[in-house]
């Protein structure tokens, strides 16, 4: 018999009697006996008693019971123990799975509240400590987006998480997923964490893109940084921005340009509207201006990007000058044209009417 008072023994009530009754006739355990053992397994798991220790306790009890059995009864003991331990382990595992599901649900609820700012900030800060965050400090958020949607149990998520744990150990970092994207939340003064996350996520997602928000203080700061990262990803898609890693701090000019949407629409319409009179519409000439400005106004490089001859590129620039009255090569006109081109890309013009 196990030592009185041990944690294992507290969850073996009735076990010895079940073995004795079953072995008396060699019968299988009844449904009621199996359910009783399952409940014992659940209670043991909830009390934090490990399954290995419990199995050893079951075997010790079985050896003790055997000393009081006849030879015929002992012949049935192994089968009864197998049934009993199986039922007990089933209950133990059932409780463990339920605890994991409850923990996952609590973590998901916390992540949703944190990233959407839907909970009381004081309560949110208290819950955050359970998941390794101190919201009294500033935090920054990085968001990775690949070709596939990623969930918490996805192999890509596990690979990135393992890399972070191996590199940074028990630092206060939270890796999660939201809407199919990988998300890393780290203290604002630990940029090396987000840099490593960006590198690993880019590789694990087969060339996916990562955006990093600026550090902001408090629980609301996490939401702010997260939204900056999402906006950076959206800008990257609309503006065809190059580079696998985007920093919101480097893209602040774009929100400024779109803050007054009506003013930007008027600028695009008045400056670039005449391009619609060209054969083939405005898009080819808009692409010409985009390539020209993206290459630092080097016509030869812009022509190469567009698979044009330098002569064809020069003709297009002259055509733009004639239609708009603005010369892309003139520093005075260049700023207005480039701002209008950026605005057109942000507003989706000419595909989207202004």
UniProtKB/TrEMBL annotation:
Q: Give the transmembrane ranges.
A: none
Q: Does the keyword DNA-binding apply?
A: yes
Q: Which Pfam families match?
A: GGDEF_2, HTH_30
Give the Gene3D superfamilies listed for this entry: PucR C-terminal helix-turn-helix domain (1.10.10.2840)
Keyword list, A-Z: DNA-binding
What top-level branch of life does the organism fall under?
Answer: Bacteria
Every copy of the PucR C-terminal helix-turn-helix domain together lies at 285-341
Q: Does the keyword DNA-binding apply?
A: yes
Alphabetically, the GO molecular function entries are: DNA binding
Q: Which family does it belong to?
A: Belongs to the CdaR family.
Task: Return the protein name.
Answer: DNA-binding PucR family transcriptional regulator
- Biological source species: Streptomyces candidus
């Amino acid at each position: 018999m196990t030592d009185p008072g041990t944690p294992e023994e507290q969850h073996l009530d009735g076990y010895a009697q079940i073995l004795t009754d079953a072995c008396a006739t060699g019968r299988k355990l009844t449904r009621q006996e199996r359910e009783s053992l399952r409940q014992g397994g659940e209670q043991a798991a909830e009390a934090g008693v490990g399954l290995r220790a419990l199995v050893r306790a079951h075997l010790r009890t079985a050896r003790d019971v055997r000393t009081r059995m006849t030879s015929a009864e002992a012949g049935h003991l192994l089968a009864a123990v197998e049934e009993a331990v199986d039922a007990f382990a089933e209950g133990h595992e059932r409780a463990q799975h339920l605890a994991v599901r409850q923990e996952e649900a609590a973590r998901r609820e916390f992540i949703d509240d944190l990233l959407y700012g839907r909970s009381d900030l004081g309560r949110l800060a208290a819950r955050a400590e359970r998941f390794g965050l101190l919201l009294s400090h500033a935090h920054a958020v990085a968001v990775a987006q690949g070709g596939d949607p990623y969930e918490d149990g996805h192999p890509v998520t596990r690979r990135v998480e393992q890399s972070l744990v191996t590199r940074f150990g028990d630092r206060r970092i939270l890796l999660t997923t939201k809407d199919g994207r990988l998300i890393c939340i780290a203290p604002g003064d630990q940029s090396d964490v987000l840099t490593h996350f960006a590198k690993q996520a880019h590789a694990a997602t087969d060339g996916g893109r990562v955006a990093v928000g600026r550090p902001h203080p408090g629980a609301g700061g996490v939401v702010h940084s997260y939204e900056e990262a999402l906006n950076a990803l959206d800008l990257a898609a609309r503006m065809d921005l190059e580079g696998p890693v985007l920093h919101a701090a480097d893209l602040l000019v774009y929100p400024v340009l779109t803050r007054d949407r009506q003013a930007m629409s008027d600028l695009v319409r008045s400056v670039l509207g005449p391009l619609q009179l060209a054969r083939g519409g405005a898009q080819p000439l808009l692409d010409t201006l985009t390539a020209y400005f993206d290459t630092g106004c080097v016509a030869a490089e812009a022509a190469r990007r567009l698979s044009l001859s330098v002569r064809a590129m020069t003709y297009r620039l002259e055509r733009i000058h004639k239609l708009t009255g603005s010369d892309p090569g003139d520093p005075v006109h260049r700023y207005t044209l480039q701002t209008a081109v950026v605005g057109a890309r942000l507003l989706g013009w000419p595909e989207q009417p202004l």
